[in-house]
Write a structure and sequence with these properties.
The structure is a homotetramer of 211-residue chains. The first copy, chain A, is an all-alpha fold and 211 residues long. The first copy, chain A, has two domains: 49 residues, Orthogonal Bundle (Arc Repressor Mutant, subunit A), CATH 1.10.10.60; 151 residues, Tetracycline Repressor, domain 2 (Orthogonal Bundle), CATH 1.10.357. Helices cover 63% and strands 0% of the residues of chain A. Chain A is built from nine helices and no strands. In chain A, helix 2 packs across helix 3, helix 4 packs antiparallel against helix 5 and helix 5 packs antiparallel against helix 9. The first copy, chain A, is elongated, with a radius of gyration of 19 Å. The termini of chain A are far apart. The C terminus of chain A is likely disordered. The interface between A and B is large, with 60 and 60 residues. The structure holds a DNA duplex (21 and 21 nucleotides). Chains A, B, C, D: This is TetR family transcriptional regulator. Chains A, B, C, D: Pfam families: TetR_C_43 (PF21597), TetR_N (PF00440). Chains A, B, C, D: Keywords: DNA-binding, Transcription, Transcription regulation. Chains A, B, C, D: GO terms for molecular function: DNA-binding transcription factor activity; transcription cis-regulatory region binding.
Chain lengths: 211, 211, 211, 211
Amino acid sequence: MQARADSVRNRRLLLRAATEAFAECGVDVSMHTIAQRAGVAKGTVFRHFPTKDDLLAAIMMQLLDRLREAADRFLRADDAGGALKDFMAHGIGLLAADRAFCDVIGRPSLQHADVREAIDRLCDTVEDLTGRAREQGAVRGDITGTDIVLLLGGIHQTAQPLLDREPRAWERFLEIAFDGLRARDRATLPHPPPARLRMADPSGASAPTGK
Amino acid sequence: MQARADSVRNRRLLLRAATEAFAECGVDVSMHTIAQRAGVAKGTVFRHFPTKDDLLAAIMMQLLDRLREAADRFLRADDAGGALKDFMAHGIGLLAADRAFCDVIGRPSLQHADVREAIDRLCDTVEDLTGRAREQGAVRGDITGTDIVLLLGGIHQTAQPLLDREPRAWERFLEIAFDGLRARDRATLPHPPPARLRMADPSGASAPTGK
Amino acid sequence: MQARADSVRNRRLLLRAATEAFAECGVDVSMHTIAQRAGVAKGTVFRHFPTKDDLLAAIMMQLLDRLREAADRFLRADDAGGALKDFMAHGIGLLAADRAFCDVIGRPSLQHADVREAIDRLCDTVEDLTGRAREQGAVRGDITGTDIVLLLGGIHQTAQPLLDREPRAWERFLEIAFDGLRARDRATLPHPPPARLRMADPSGASAPTGK
Amino acid sequence: MQARADSVRNRRLLLRAATEAFAECGVDVSMHTIAQRAGVAKGTVFRHFPTKDDLLAAIMMQLLDRLREAADRFLRADDAGGALKDFMAHGIGLLAADRAFCDVIGRPSLQHADVREAIDRLCDTVEDLTGRAREQGAVRGDITGTDIVLLLGGIHQTAQPLLDREPRAWERFLEIAFDGLRARDRATLPHPPPARLRMADPSGASAPTGK
DNA sequence: AATGAATGAGAATTCATTCAT
DNA sequence: TATGAATGAATTCTCATTCAT
């Protein structure tokens, strides 16, 4: 149980390389490229992640756990509204580094039980964060944690075309969105709060491969 | 010129088939599938669109032009604020039908001069629409047409994970966003209005293919 | 419908090359090798035979049909016993050219409906041939066509280790076997006549892959 | 020498596991599977058997030696004809348990000097057995031990397609074959007795790997 | 001596694109 | 001009074998 030193190091190298590769090139980077970028042989990638989707899942989990940790940290702040907004800023920053995030939505990797659980955990923690903001009257009464999680991705996507030239453009859209979230003398939102995220359905019809 | 008539017809069939195929299956549908769905041979696809990216570009242009036409129509309404919101709803609806939209961001197809022009045209028209809303005090003073165009995609993406089960969930996020856009006793937005959309840069670093 | 000239030629080249390659090297020859030997590109193999098993099936069918044609021809002879033996000799000769025959037993290619039908057809025709020999008292009363078909392969396998140095050694074993088949004052054979050939069962247990 | 004890034990475990694995799954089982089934690490397999072919050879030798031991035992019986037949039944039973037997014919593993010697030893012993039967007039005068060894494999192969559903079908074909072997008022067999088994030639043409 | 991580050649298969008919 | 056959680079994944611990 010592020989693992190399293995652990390689796993770390692989995750880093894959994160970067997916972020830069999208989900279509080849496993070969990822191996190269990690400085290991192809076979090593597959030893650590038996399929490409496993690798994608591992990376998604990394991201999701990082987001949840952040949410956890912001839970301690007194000003719940400010904390929520700060969390969103932080989260969008994480996403901004990852071009793959968009491609990955609706992918089989999201079917991984582990990923699903990580999403659930994230939504739960963010719900706590959001609940406090709601109670303090900082956001509308019918905003949920899932709304916030979805907005993270959405705001990131909104600013993405500008990412190269104006890397902080998302701040503008976060401001707009957060302004829309604020409690006010407004009617209820037109569509009910989103259900638990269950991502794409594996069974045919809704997301055909159509090859 | 009988041949020309056939050719025109084929082009139309191809565009329709490709639009549907990309929408349903994402950008990874094979040219073969598209040819089949259009009822023509593979060679014919390549006669009309020398590369797959050309085809994608053509379809993006279609979408962009359709959006612009819609914006044009809404230009005639009296209530500029309502018209802007209605336009957004209409635009997001168009996007929602298109699974490829996300995949396509940052693709070389967006480098096509034609697509760039179509984007510019769209932004111009939406800027007119937005300008009127701004003047009527319906939205903040520093909101531009480009903001709106970006939000179209962003709101769509926000609701995308729910698309299968709650196809109209975007209405909720449009409401939130539009609420954030509204003129009010608020400070200026934190980031300057976005520049003209220039999408991803073809030269290396920012959007490598990384194969 | 003219462009097929090349295609037809290629299909023929492929079948020939594949037959030889499988015969010489066994079922593990790569599709690449087969393509090379046929003088076509790898992609062409897959255009004609979507999977390796399809190719194997096609080749098995060739062999089975050739066997059946032979059986058909021998059906016309007057001396039914001699005809049966001549057919066996002819069939074993066909098999002797094919090293793959053994490997292929129990393979998924034999699950192909077409192959199954070809086997059935062969057994039917050979049953006719055998029936006549039975009636003429040339072979035991409880010998069936399926016995004969099985013996074809078995006799071939018996002599196979000698194939390189004594290519006609199978004649010796055919003589022995046929002698054992002859009608005589003997008790019934110990095991009931074999059922229809249904080859290996696809469902796990009996032929696990065990990777 | 504690280590040596472990080593011997591992070798035994490996041989057992490999025998079973090859028998069940054919020669394509991975070394990994074999290691697992033996409860050792992959490296250990290679320490004992430098290549897969060495392992296969070791297993073939086991089988051959087991067959020879059986032949030896039957040598003691008085009724030489019955003993020969009983030996064949016993031998075919051993083969029937082994799905790999067919795959292995013509493999480089059979080139191993050790395997060749084991085959020779087997043939010698069976020749003794056969000689006695010949002398007692129980089988034709020109039947050799090598004939019998070849028939072992051949009869097994004949019944193999039925193995799943009728595991004792080989009894039928043994009866037929043995009937053909019996001494009688018949002419000499058409082909001279087979030479020593020299299996496939390693040098090119006759058994190319053809990759 | 045993372990199991790393290696890298190679397999089947896909697909955009080219080109002969 | 339309067709669809041919091409061959690229992809994911497997596995025998090597080697550091």
